[in-house]
Amino acid sequence: MNDLIWIPLLPLLGTLVPLFASRFSRSACAFLTAGFPALALVLVLQLAPQVFDGETVRQSFGWIPQLGLELAFRLDGLALLFTLLILGIGLLVVLYARYYLSENDSMGKFYAYLILFMFAMLGVVMSDNLIQLWMFWELTSISSFLLISFWGHKTEARKGARIALTITGAGGLALLAGVLLIGNVVGSYSLHDVLASGDLIREHTVYPVILILVLLGAFTKSAQFPFHFWPPHAMAAPTPVSAYLHSATMVKAGIFLMARMYPVLSGTELWFLIVSMTGLATLLLGAYVALFKHDLKGLLAYSTVSHLGLITLLLGMGTDMAAVAALFHIINHATFKASLFMAAGIIDHESGSRDMRQLNGLWKYMPYTATLAMVAAAAMAGVPLLNGFLSKEMFFAETLHQDSLGSLSWMVPVFATLGTVFSVAYSLRFIHDVFFNGEPVNLPKTPHEPPRYMRVPVEILVALCLLVGIMPTYMIGDLLYAASAATLQGQVPEYSLSIWHGFNFPLLMSVVALAGGAVVYINRKELFQFQAQFPENDPKLVFEAVIQLIHRQISRVMELAENGSLQRYSYMMLSLAMVMMAEPLLDLNATAGHRPQIPVDAISITGAVLLAIGALATVIWNRQRMVALVALSVVGLIVSLMFAKFSAPDLALTQLAVEVVTVILLMLALFFLPQTTPKESSPKRVARDLGIAAIIGGVIGTISYALMTRPLDSISTFFLENSKTGGGGTNVVNVILVDFRGFDTLGEITVLGIAALGIFKLIARMRLYMPASDGDGRPWSQDSHPLMLSVVSQSLLPLALLVSAYIFLRGHNMPGGGFIAGLITSVAIIQQYIAHGVDWIKARMKLDYQLMIGSGITIAALTGLGSWAFGRPFLTSWFDHFHLPLVGEFELASAMLFDLGVFLTVVGATMLILANLGKLTTSERPVLKEHD
Amino acid sequence: MEGLYAFCVGLLTACGIFLALRGRTFPVVVGLTLLSYGVNLFLFASGRLKLNSAAVLGQSAQHSDPLPQALVLTAIVIGFAMTAFVVILAMRARADLGNDHVDGRLPEAPKPRLARRSGGQ
């Protein structure tokens, strides 16, 4: 076991530090923030010797192995190279930002985002699992969004951040698709397995799809043509962010991905064509555009794009040496570009401008910074004795060696030289325009040297440029070798890192580039005039226009599908249901099965006719609501009779009781709702609805018929056999409810309780207009509580309660039980409400229905829990028979207690609904206090 | 008998669906009630129809299937709770929105296809 996981984990913990530390002084905050990443860097350095020995340090924690999900980290040469860049440059940026940020900026927030981003980048480069890599990949997009939009009060920052997030986020989705395909082909997401399956993937038919998806991810992140426009807009970020994101991290993530997947995806014609041609285009475009940018950071941004194109071109060539050169240039670009961004930030900070038309002759004001910037810019141009020269020489040598374009292969070195010519030209412009070339023009501040420690990060980076440039082998030989070995996953070619290779072609190309660059720069006026003829099109506006267009189109589609009409949604849902139900029926040859059918008798026909009349009357007179309600109750009655006829007494009783309650409920509701429905459906709509209703009805009827006429193989035999012996009751339905499937019932009464409480909440504060007359304008009767009704119902109450108790007690063995008893009790109480009015009841019956629901569910649950006390599973029931004098033998069962819970919940819920609704008609309207 | 029963189930379903597709809350509630009758009968019939048998042991040699009965019993009660909830929701909607249309707003008079301006905020 090793401490690999701590390398990303420490920065993750470190994200919290600045949030707490921001209350201290600025220096203390920066110092504390640097703590965790510094510790992580120490861990990396401790592991470095192992990696240099060719070992791959790995650590993983299983999560869902079936899905190939794990938390897995690896540290090989490639990951080591990147972790060093991320942590090293990250720490320098932390120091730099302490001086860069003004008093108005929230330092804690900035550092927290920065370290979060650092964590995400470490996760990307250290992941040993592709899914995990992708997750960190998206996290870099999100955290970079936060960083770029740090100055959210600026429109540019918001827009720039949005563009960056959209482009890189969309690329991330493509990458996810690619990763899933790779996982599908290889059968594992582990990088270890994937890296070993290069041939398998390359020979697979989906290889082109995988390649394009993964490259989409890499190209968007690394700003390759045609996605090259996002880094320049991300320049609205604070300069420390640019120095970090556009040198060593964010944009390098795409390069990293290509290097990581190099052994798996490279080596094919397709790879060469896509990657190298994209790289070449980006190299040329970036270098050319950079020359014309007046904004210091804009120049650097396009220069970054161009250098990324160079690295991509190298990776695309597919030779081992080219890959080595690419890795070398990754290091070199990170060091000189980070220092250049920091220098640009210093100039901006101390002079108040980044416009090269204003910034001139700064040499006089800040000679020290100018020297540093000039060395870094020279490294960017590829001047000998600096690191940029070395990797550029290797690059030239490789462009000469490749021959994949056949007889057109000579074009690659020519274009490469051309790109470098522009690279030299914009480097010259950076040096000459800013530090010489006359006097400053209208600068907001008089420029001066920055604080001592703001320069330190630049000094360190520039020193590295020099040291690597002069003593390459000594400085980074081991690192480069290890990284190359990890990237190639095999033999590293022989290469020499010396600064002098004799007079050869690459050297000639370098000389041509330097001289050409000088010529281009000297003649820049003509070039600028030529360029000015082209219309300037702002990618930001184009991007916004595209987004708007997509938004409009999507809205149009959405309006078709989702126009806010419930009727349309129901119609669509039912149509879909109809198709899905009817489709399997087409395969059913005979509608009727072989099961013997029951002959039809006169009573059944009468019932069916009544039911049909009731149902049709409900539909036909549906706009006269009272009539429809009466017709509906006829249907309900017939349904309960049907249950009785077909040997389901429990259901008949339940249906009857519920029918009464439902009709009372709907009548109460009708009191507050309009008495009639306006005629508003068009004939077309009615015909359409009739059609779909008829078809679904027909389908359901057919299914029902087909079902009933086929023999049944039911699991009910088990319930019938075990009901008496296991559950202690002969009413199997009740035993199923309270015993076999008691857990279901517990869930159901809970739903009942929740529904009732929800209704209670809805009723509270309901402000409804109370009509003074019925729909036809007749006033309500003065005598709302007729004497006869009061007297009869009052005397009926004890009788009803007695029946209820009887039904409840016998429920276990005879039709009845908690549900039915509860409903009967409710009906009896409601009758009192109807007969006497809410006020009269309130004075006499103090029942807290909410408490009743609560205690009902609690009793049922506790009964279930009680069986735990005896070491049995939840809701195991117990019963025994006792003998008492006079009463005779009787049975006690724990299920009865459960049934009591059901009873209480049903009564509580029903009464809570109806009594509260009824109260609305009286002065007893429930009023919810403000705090409820 | 099975055919008659199936006819009743189909009729209830059809009537329920037609009413559930109406535009005002009360017919929709009535429609849902009819539909739930149909569904309950349908589920009940999945235990097959039996005359003169009992789900109580010891009363008859022939037993009806107790399982669909138990399921339908709770379905009836829950169905009531849901009907109640929808009804009260409809009332509340009328109280707060001033109409009893299922969309919470009265349908506009049909207009020539109007393109709603959307996009950029």
TrEMBL record, chain A:
Membrane-crossing segments per the record: 6-22, 29-48, 77-98, 110-127, 133-151, 163-186, 206-229, 241-259, 271-292, 299-317, 323-347, 368-390, 410-428, 460-483, 503-522, 569-586, 598-620, 627-646, 652-674, 686-708, 749-766, 787-809, 815-835, 847-870, 890-915
Membrane-topology descriptor: Multi-pass membrane protein
Annotated source species: Oceanospirillum linum
Example GO biological process: monoatomic ion transport
Ranges where the NADH-Ubiquinone oxidoreductase (complex I) chain 5 N-terminal domain occurs: 66-111
Coiled coil: none
Location of the MrpA C-terminal/MbhE domain: 685-774
Entry's localization field: Cell membrane; Membrane
Predominant location: membrane
GO molecular function, one term: antiporter activity
Cited NCBIfam families: PRK12648.1
Residues of the MrpA C-terminal/MbhD domain: 610-675
Listed GO CC annotations: plasma membrane
Domain of life: Bacteria
Domain spans labelled Na+/H+ antiporter MnhB subunit-related protein: 788-911
Protein name (database record): Monovalent cation/H+ antiporter subunit A
Keyword Acetylation in annotation: no
Signal sequence extent: none
TrEMBL record, chain B:
Compartments (UniProt record): Cell membrane
Compositional bias (Basic and acidic residues): 99-111
Keywords, in A-Z order: Cell membrane, Membrane, Transmembrane, Transmembrane helix
Residue ranges crossing the lipid bilayer per the database entry: 30-49, 70-91
Gene Ontology CC: plasma membrane
NCBIfam families: PRK09094.1
Name of the protein this chain belongs to: Na+/H+ antiporter subunit C
The species this protein was found in: Oceanospirillum linum
Source species taxonomy: Bacteria, Pseudomonadati, Pseudomonadota, Gammaproteobacteria, Oceanospirillales
